[in-house]
Amino acid sequence: MSSPISSDQPKGPTQQLTEWIQSMSFDKVPTTVHTRAKYIILDGLACLLVGSHLPWSTKAVHAFQAFEPPGSGSCNVYGWNYKISPPSAALLNSTFIQGFELDDWHSEAPLHSNALLLPSLMATVEHEAAVGTTIISGKEFLLAAIIGYEVGPRVGLGLWGGHILSAGWHSGAVFGPAAVASAVAKMLNLPASQIEDALGIACTQAGGLMSAQFGSEVKRMQHGFAARNGLCATFLARGGYIGIKQVFEQPYGGFLTQFSAGNGKTPNFLPDEISKDLGKEWKIAGVRLKPYASMAGTHPTIDCVRLLQQQYPEAVSSQGLQKIKSITIEMGSDAFHHGGWHPTRPLTSLGAQMCNAYVAASQFIDHNVLIAQFEPAMLDRDAVWGLVEKTTCVQNDNLSKFAQRVTVSYEEGSGIGPISGKVENARGVDPEMSNEDILEKWRQLTIGLVEDRTREEIESIVLNLESCKDIKALTDLMVEIGSTKGAFTP
């Protein structure tokens, strides 16, 4: 057994990170980062509202109501007129943000930052206001979110980024507790020693199985577990509870050691990635926003099909689709292990959203991959499944990270030769969604879910967070929304 790291050894990445978090101030963050973070937050709130009354979200809320009765806590489950404890509110609101695969993802180290950070930060705001501890400003809220956007991907890069997803871990649920603990600890102005305790308590609760994508509903909740656990860890640390010291680099039972075990990489993990270029290289640049309602690894497939629809409209017309013999989708290792599996009929909406073959068929048939494509009535269509059964996904390690190729072959005598479309990057990565695109997405997603006046007030507060004296003004508006119809009903 390796000996634990002693306190008199040189500062490792854990302590370097905690000291950086404590020392960061709003004016040390570039204005461009402030601005981008505000739009990312707005996108997360849109996803929360869309997800709040989906069938699986409703089921989760009703299950919680059975053991945490309404009014039993200080924090709101948005859209439900339901108050419960901070950890449980963070979990459920996170589940809403992850409810329909419309939320953000990170291109270097896959996680969904908004589903981790916004519910835990908002629960903290409401709890602190309820107990009369402190008033948290919009500037403090924004800085805390930025800290979280930084820490989550860095922890992931310490484990070789997307490789842990290929290995079968739900990467965001592994990287997420540390991101939440860092953000909440910053907003509560904890000293570096307690931030380290929060990280040590959070990281021992990390985990998540990627088999959750095959038909279960719990995949939508796993970032919520991380939000809950990171929030609990920080409250414990603030109360003086001692966490694992130097948790990332401990040789025996440390975070990086355990989650990299048997990964076949040399070295197994990269501890310096956690603290490298802090305050110089901003990982928020890798936060991507989704134009499609499906897992990020399916987006290049959709773009390839869109390219074919633009370049070969006759070949992929409704008549052309009937003459297809086979469809081959080539993709890199991460995308293949995540979405290259062959589905069986019928699929749940989640399974469909995580499957490249199914998503490709939806784009071929509907020219769209949005919320409507995954309504229950749409999931068992013969036309879609006819194409799915002709589709094969292939791992091609010669392709760059986000590159994919879709090749369509036709029956002999059809008069249509093979056609192929390739993209190097997904839409949303290159080009990334602009701030104007994000604003339009927010407005489109919330039409019919939020009254115009309330939507405009939320939009104004978020895009001017640095001027907001009390961020509870935002959470109060989220409560005002009340019960909504949700994106669709089963």
TrEMBL record:
Q: Which Pfam families does the protein's record reference?
A: MmgE_PrpD_C, MmgE_PrpD_N
Q: What residue stretches are annotated with the MmgE/PrpD C-terminal domain?
A: 292-466
**Database matches in SUPFAM superfamilies:** 2-methylcitrate dehydratase PrpD
| Gene3D superfamilies named among the record's database cross-references | 2-methylcitrate dehydratase PrpD
Tell me which InterPro entries the record gives. Answer: MmgE/PrpD_sf, MmgE/PrpD_sf_1, MmgE_PrpD, MmgE_PrpD_C, MmgE_PrpD_N
Q: Where is the MmgE/PrpD N-terminal domain?
A: 15-264
According to its UniProt record, which protein family does this protein belong to?
Belongs to the PrpD family.
Would you tell me the protein name for this molecule?
Answer: MmgE/PrpD family protein
